[in-house]
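in:
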């Protein structure tokens, strides 16, 4: 049953909700502490991207997440609780923040439905601190949204989180909720048309290709002489458009162009957005079943089926690419074992995207109750897929070679719920959007045997895939 302010059930619900909110308020008064009421209701289906487009304000944090393969999309708008920090223990502090918030949340509604429990949205940066002072996102942002609209298959769930203390007017809160449901219903018929009109880019600068190739050559020498077997080097593409980038049309393009990737966007509430279409899952945990992707080793898609199959064959049999890939598997299995988990390496396969294909090995494990998802994220980030091997040494080299701030690029981005379910991706194939400017990021793993020309082609291929979607 879905709820709407005009349905017959509305009055029953309204009464029940009123009683619930009054009870939460009484608890807040008794315990002299602020409580968070989390109300979940099934509503008529609406596209979460439309919700984000129509309901978000520029000064609010927001988060968008879509996985077409799993028939899932979530929009999270505005924050009732947030943490923005930096430093070595940012994952641990985020975990503590989430646990503290959860101890003050009281839920109402259909909590057995998908995405009906309070969810915390998280974005971390690649390094524990951003060196570039003007970089617009914190090294860690975690927030509990005020509004969350999620679609899973045919079902659409609204979660409304609201602060309750002695001073709030419960009637007014209910009025805000029903008004929002009315607006959401009015958005149900709205849909996007693909916007293929590329803007005119008045300025487009690839960080000089020669500089990138020079860095690859230099990294190869370091790999020969030092205790590091892989360094992932990234490059940027700065674009200035003649109009402001349209975030929602760009995301709509991304989900059509990359249906088998995770589509994501997060805003800092100050006008900047970090968006992308990532093929790489860092971890997902569903009912204690963890899956992580070892994804490294790349080849272009072919123009014909025969060329495509030949490229795939070459990739699967290339000693260099397999070595690059194995470093990631070894690291992930080691780190999971250190946490007391028993990783199972599943058979290797190909992850074929619209313009590129990767070697892909899913790894699974059962997560014990006492291991929080963010503990696993902190153990796994950064993997050799985006840093190198060993990651610590590789990170020092990355700072030496790359003259730009990685920020949220190649870093964990995702959500965690109250039951330890979560999904985090690695923020690759991504861009920072700021008005009429965009900075696109892409990288490639350098190992002994890497060819600077081929690595540059790989990076450019990845950048182009994203550039095509921006409008
Ligand atoms: C670093 C990136 O991608 C990573 C590097 C890959 C490679 O070098 O083969 C493949 C997939 C990703 O793990 C990126 O896209 O920016």
């Amino acid at each position: 049953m879905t709820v709407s302010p005009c349905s017959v059930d509305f009055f029953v619900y309204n009464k029940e909700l009123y009683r619930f909110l009054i009870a939460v308020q009484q608890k807040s008064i008794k315990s002299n502490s602020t409580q968070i009421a989390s109300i979940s209701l099934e509503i008529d289906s609406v596209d979460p991207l439309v919700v984000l487009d129509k309901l978000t304000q520029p000064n609010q944090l927001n988060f968008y997440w879509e996985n077409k393969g799993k028939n899932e999309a979530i929009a999270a708008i505005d924050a009732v609780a947030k943490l923005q920090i930096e430093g070595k223990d940012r994952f641990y502090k985020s975990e503590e923040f989430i646990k503290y918030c959860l101890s003050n949340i009281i839920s109402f509604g259909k909590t057995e439905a998908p995405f009906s429990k309070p969810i915390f949205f998280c974005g971390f940066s690649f390094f524990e601190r951003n060196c570039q002072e003007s970089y617009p996102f914190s090294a860690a942002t975690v927030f509990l949204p005020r509004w969350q609209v999620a679609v899973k298959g045919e079902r659409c769930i609204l979660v409304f989180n609201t602060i309750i203390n002695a001073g709030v007017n419960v009637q007014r809160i209910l009025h805000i909720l029903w008004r929002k449901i009315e607006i959401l219903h009015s958005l149900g018929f709205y849909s996007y048309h693909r916007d293929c009109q590329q803007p005119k880019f008045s300025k487009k600068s690839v960080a000089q290709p020669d500089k990138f190739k020079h860095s690859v050559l230099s990294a190869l020498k370091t790999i020969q002489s030092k205790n590091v077997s892989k360094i992932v080097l990234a490059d940027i593409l700065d674009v200035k458009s003649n109009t402001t980038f349209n975030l929602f049309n760009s995301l709509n393009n991304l989900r059509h162009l990359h249906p088998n990737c995770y589509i994501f966007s997060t805003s800092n509430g100050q006008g900047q957005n970090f968006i992308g279409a990532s093929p790489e899952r860092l971890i997902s945990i569903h009912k204690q079943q963890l899956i992580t992707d070892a994804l490294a080793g790349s080849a272009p898609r072919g123009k014909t089926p025969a060329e495509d199959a030949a490229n795939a064959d070459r990739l699967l049999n290339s000693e260099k690419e397999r070595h690059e890939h194995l470093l990631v598997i070894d690291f992930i299995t080691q780190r999971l074992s250190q946490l007391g988990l028993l990783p199972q390496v599943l058979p290797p396969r190909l992850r074929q995207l619209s313009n590129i294909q990767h070697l892909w090995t899913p790894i699974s494990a059962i997560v014990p109750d006492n291991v929080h998802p963010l503990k696993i994220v902190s153990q796994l980030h950064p993997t050799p897929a985006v840093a190198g091997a060993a990651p610590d040494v590789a990170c020092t080299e990355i700072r030496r070679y790359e003259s730009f701030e990685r920020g949220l690029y190649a870093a964990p981005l995702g959500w965690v719920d109250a039951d330890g379910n979560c999904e985090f991706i690695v923020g690759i194939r991504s861009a920072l959007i700021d008005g009429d400017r965009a900075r696109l990021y892409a990288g490639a793993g350098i190992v002994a045997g890497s060819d600077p020309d081929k690595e540059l082609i790989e990076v450019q291929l990845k950048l182009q895939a994203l550039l095509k979607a921006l409008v």
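note: The chain has two domains: 9-186, 201-467.
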